Amino acid sequence: MIKTLFPTSVYYAPLKSSGIIQLNREIKQEAQKFSEIDEEGQIWSKKNYPGGYTSYGSIAQLHQISTTFELLEKDIFKHVRKFVKHLEMDINPKELKMSSCWINIMPSNVIHTMHLHPLSVISGTYYVQTPKNSSAIKFEDPRLDSFMASPPRKHHAKDANKRHYSLQPQEGNVVLFESWLRHEVPANQSDKERISISFNYDWV
Hints:
Number of strands: 10
Order of helices and strands: EHHEHEEEEEEEE
CATH architecture: Sandwich
Largest sheet: 6 strands, antiparallel
CATH topology: Jelly Rolls
Number of helices: 3
CATH superfamily: q2cbj1_9rhob like domain
Radius of gyration: 17 Å
CATH class: Mainly Beta
């Protein structure tokens, strides 16, 4: 008998069944506007997000200042509830609140290096614009630093046995994961901008 223990779950699904085109149009308009007027964010991005723009270091509670992002949060939370149920967390999903929500605009060749989201419970991203050849989101096995002499896995190993897994997101979809899971976004190989909205949910 072989049991699969300590699995790492990643949730991926369409945000909703209708209204995506209009929603993404409104988000893109607001994202571009913020990127133009957010001087603090421009300075922060130049140092921490070279070549791109993120409001993470300046305007990171978009759901509290924009109706568009407030409505987005309501749609995202429906998925957070499902993910919490799947994970069998012993909490009421209502105890999780969106603590931060920010814009990411990645032009060609921009990267987002490996990181995690400390002190949060559930993190994720909603994809607004994912042109052909734009970056995947790449997840790292959280046990990697403990493998020591473990041999590498076969190139075509099952997803559950891989050391890294790349998910190629499509616009209109949301991805969720536990905040301790390390991940990165490799260089955008498209000649168009990759636009997404990332967020954290904290236990309050």
